[in-house]
């Protein structure tokens, strides 16, 4: 039995993966979100590979009599899935549901905090900032908006004191992680760290890890970092209080 909700049901929409670590990490993040907001009903749906599916979750909620839903894309950038896939799935939801699609997680200063948390956990130290080059390694996208967002995040992060920060991509765009590592070495960085800007393990994060072979530090994925959970709730709150029309309205 679910306790009386404190607001619209939050449906976290993850991409899904054949790699079981992906779903396990998503569920760990959702548990942290629930722990930060007791009374908020949070469900998880996957676009592909894993269950429950997003249509399945929405159908079950409608059958229970739920009316208001905030659908949150568990994505770091606003690219194809956020612009096309997810809106299409939400438009096919049961008509009795009033659904608002929240914004993607990035950009957010809290995500930079999460990236630094992971770097420090992996062995980087604040004392090394001025001599360390960082590779901001993302999954990659064919969407120019997403590529631009990663480049801007790298510039913003460098201004916090790292010797240099360079973007890299595991697919669809260049440079690759290993190329960015070599560039930072050539620039004269005493140490090189790779920070995966991805939420959960899987094929592309593994490719990032292989490309980090020449680096001194390889951070873990963001996963259920507390800062990520805070961003999820910020996006939920913003969608909850906003007044635009619901998806499909």
Tell me about this structure.
The protein has 249 residues and is of the alpha/beta class. The chain has two domains: 9-106 and 226-241, 3-Layer(aba) Sandwich (Rossmann fold); 109-218, Rossmann fold, CATH 3.40.50. Helix content is 42%, strand content 17%. It is built from eight helices and eight strands; from the N terminus they run βαβαβαβαβαβαβαβα. The protein has a four-stranded parallel beta sheet, with helices on both faces. Strand 3 (68-73), helix 3 (80-91) and strand 4 form a beta-alpha-beta unit. Helix 1 crosses helix 8 (226-241), helix 4 (109-122) runs antiparallel to helix 8 and helix 6 packs parallel to helix 7 (203-211). The longest helix has 17 residues, at 20-36. The radius of gyration is 19 Å and the shape is elongated. The model has no long low-confidence stretch (mean pLDDT 94).
User: How many helical elements?
Assistant: 8
Topology, number of strands: 8
What is the beta-strand fraction? 15-25%
Specify the helix fraction band: 40-55%
Order of helical and strand elements:
EHEHEHEHEHEHEHEH
Radius of gyration: 19 Å
The assembly state of the depicted protein chains is: single chain
Overall mean pLDDT stands at 94
Any idea of the CATH class of the largest domain?
A: Alpha Beta
For the terminal residues, how far apart are their CA atoms?
Answer: 31 Å
CATH second-level architecture of the largest domain: 3-Layer(aba) Sandwich
Low-confidence regions: none
CATH level-3 fold name of the largest domain: Rossmann fold
Query: How many separate structural domains?
Result: 2
> What structural class should be given to the helix and strand makeup?
alpha/beta
Backbone shape: elongated
| Strand neighbour order, sheet with most strands | 2-1-3-4
Largest sheet, strands/sense/barrel: 4 strands, parallel
């Amino acid at each position: 039995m679910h306790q009386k909700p404190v607001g619209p049901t939050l449906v976290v929409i993850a991409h899904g993966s054949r790699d079981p670590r992906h779903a396990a990490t998503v569920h760990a993040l959702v548990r942290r979100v629930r722990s930060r907001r007791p009374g908020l009903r949070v469900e998880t749906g996957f676009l592909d590979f894993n269950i429950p599916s997003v249509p399945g979750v929405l159908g079950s909620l409608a059958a229970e009599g739920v009316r208001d839903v905030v659908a949150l894309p568990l994505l770091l950038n606003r690219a194809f899935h956020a612009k096309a896939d997810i809106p299409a799935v939400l438009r096919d939801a049961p008509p009795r549901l009033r659904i608002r699609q929240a914004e993607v997680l990035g950009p957010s200063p809290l995500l930079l905090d999460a990236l630094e948390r992971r770097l420090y956990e992996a062995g980087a130290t604040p004392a090394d900032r001025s001599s360390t080059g960082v590779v901001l390694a993302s999954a990659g996208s064919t969407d120019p908006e997403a590529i631009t967002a990663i480049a801007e995040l790298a510039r913003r992060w460098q201004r916090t004191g790292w010797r240099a920060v360079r973007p890299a991509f595991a697919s669809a765009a260049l440079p690759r992680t290993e190329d960015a590592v070599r560039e930072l070495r050539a620039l004269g960085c005493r140490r090189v760290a790779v920070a995966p800007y991805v939420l959960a393990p899987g094929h592309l994060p593994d490719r990032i890890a292989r490309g980090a072979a020449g680096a001194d530090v390889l951070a873990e994925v963001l996963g259920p970092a507390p800062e990520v959970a805070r961003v999820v709730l910020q996006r939920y709150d913003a969608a909850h209080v906003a007044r635009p029309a619901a998806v499909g309205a």
